[in-house]
Every structure is written in C-alpha cells, then in structure tokens.
Amino acid sequence: MLISIIGTHGIPANYGGFETFAQHLAIACANNDIKVRVVNEKNNPVASLHENIEIVASEFNKSEDPLKFYKDSMDIAVADSDIILVCGVGGARYYSEANKYGIKIITCVDGLEHLRKRYSILQRVVVYFLQGLAAKKSDRVITDSHIGEKYWLKRFPNEKRKIKMISYGTDDCLPFDLSVLEKFELKKDGYFLTIARLVPENNIHEIIGAVKDFIGNKKLVLVGRMENTAYVKDLQEMGGDKVLFLDAIYDKHILDSLRQGCYIYLHGHSVGGTNPSLLEALKAGSACICHDNEFNREVTAGNQLYFDTWDDLSMILNLLEHKNADIDDLKMKASKAVQNYTWDKIYNAYFDLFNRLTKSKNNNAE
C-alpha cells in the first residue's frame, strides 16, 4: 500500500497543524510497514525520516502558488498511489484524474477556511466552491472536530456517508527545564504565552491590547513567524516593552518548557477545528483563556475561560491577578480535557480507514 500525503508545506514539520499531523501520520504508517510519499513545497527542507517515507519536492510553494502547488502534487501522487490524502480543499479541482484511475482520495479539511479574515472575498468564494468539489469527488472527507463535522453534514447531506471526524493528537510533554526560561529572562508563572501564526483571525491584536491593559507586571511572550507584513509590523509597534516577540520555534523542548512555565496561555484562534497549539497548551497543564467559539469550547470541554473582545480579555486578566486558586483549578481541568486526544487513537482511526478504502478498491477491481 502506498499513501501519498499532499497539501502541506511539507515535512519535517516547521509550519503549522497540517504539517505536524502529516509528519506524525507518515512516521506511524512507516513504522507499520505502510509506504508513504509526502510532497513538500519547493522550499521546505528535505530530511530522511524513515526508509518507508519518500519525500518529494514540488516545483511550487504552497504559500506563493497554492493551486499550482496542488496541481503539481496531484500529478506526482496519481502516478502510483493507492490512496491520496489531501490536506485542505485546494486540490479538489484536480481530483478527476485520480477518480478516473480508481485511486481513493481522502480530503482532510481544515477549519472553516472560507471565514478566514486574511483571505479576500474572492479567495473565500473560491474556497467555498472547492469545498463543494471536495465533498463530491472525495471518497472520504475528514474533519478534525465535531463542530466542523456538523458544518459539512449540514451543507452536504447527500454526502453523509463520506464525512467522518478524526481529531488531532498530542504528545506527552518533555520535562520542564527552567534554563529555557532563563535564556529568555523569564520567570515561572511570570508571563502570558501565545503560540500562533500572526494573522488577524488569531486575534493577536486583541491579545496584545489586553496585556497592555493588564494591571500587573507580567508581559506577553508571543511565538510566531515574524513575516514581513504590514500586520506583523503593526503588532510590533503596538506591543512595545509589554511583548517579547519570538520568531517561530519548532524545538519541542523549548516549547514545552515555555508552556509549562507560563502563567496563562492566551489562545485567540477564531476559525479552525482541533487546533494543535491549544491541545499542546492543555497537555502542558496550562490555564487557558480562549477566544469564545464552538471549536475552542469543544477542545477544552468548556472548562477554561473565554473572551470575545479586547475588553473581555482585559477584564478577565485583571480579575485573575489575585486569584491563584482559580488558576490552579484551570490547570487541573486543562489536563483532564486533553486526555482523549492521543496520537495512537488517531493513527488507528486512519489505519482502519486506509484498510477499508483499499479493500473497497480491490473489490471494485474484481
């Protein structure tokens, strides 16, 4: 069996949730004697991860030419794959060739991409249209949350049999290392933490504003790719000495220690499903204040704190300043909320899906 994974920036993972998922699943497949091909974007570094994993570079970068990247990736995958697992709906326009040859297609949809603020109206319309193609031409559509599953079932009731929910997983944390904090001149429980892409739908502007309104002396540690955009420059100017900006970090040892050492984790993602950065914060036992939406409430089992606006978050932070007992309670509940999000559970769900689709393909061939 050969599984091709396309649609991510690539592995080794150094971007976001799709990439982390692709790397975990590829290695799990390889360890179970399932051959995997991952199509990277042009500029993603290539490394040898396992003898059963082939990494191929596309001629295009997803961030620069997403449709060309998906088209090229599909052309590579169609050659000899049994199953093509596509991350995102951007490849749906090019599924016909795979359909013609009986190759099974699994589309792992992200959150509700057509609602992302960073997209233009035209881009949102295109994404909405591609969702329809993905629903029609995929053999399975996988959402990573029950809320996302409800959206797809409601919009595409005739494709109900194809739609399935499989969430993301999270790893156990590495031991806390105080020297990581000392490297950044931080003290345990002395800072707020946000790890996110610096884009409008993650409410970074609101988080920085609320921390600047905070009556205490804790600063915000903001970990995210410092891209040369007007939005990022505006955030830097706004943050001043209340925000420590750190470029994207992918070292698990550093990230786990930052999570375990923070006073409160601030999660502003407003569009998405089971967001990996939130899972990892919960796994670290971080007290979380999340943007108030169905996705975040599902992941946290509704037992953390939530905000809608800058003012909401300011008020919550200031009320909590002298209530350490409340923070301890949130930390305890965070650890409980994430217990079911294990990678082994996710791997088994995908292995079962691969076997079912392969059996169906073989039966049809007969």
Topology (SSEs and partners):
Elements: E1 2-6, H1 17-31, E2 35-40, E3 53-57, H2 66-78, E4 83-87, H3 96-100, E5 104-108, H4 121-137, E6 140-143, H5 146-155, E7 163-165, H6 178-183, E8 191-195, H7 204-212, E9 219-223, H8 230-239, E10 243-246, H9 252-261, E11 264-267, H10 276-283, E12 288-291, H11 294-299, E13 305-307, H12 310-320, H13 324-337, H14 343-365
Parallel strand pairs: 1-2, 1-4, 2-3, 4-5, 5-6, 6-7, 8-9, 8-11, 9-10, 11-12, 12-13
Helix pairs in contact: 1-14, 7-12
Global structural class: alpha/beta
- Euclidean distance between termini CA atoms: 17 Å
State the major sheet: 7 strands, parallel
The helix content, as a percent range, equals 40-55%
Tell me, briefly, the overall form. globular
Uncertain residue segments: none
Q: Which band does the percent of strand residues land in?
A: 15-25%
Order of strands in the sheet with most strands: 3-2-1-4-5-6-7
Radius of gyration using CA atoms only? 21 Å
Count of helix runs: 14
The count of β-strands is 13
Average pLDDT: 91
Order of helices and strands: EHEEHEHEHEHEHEHEHEHEHEHEHHH
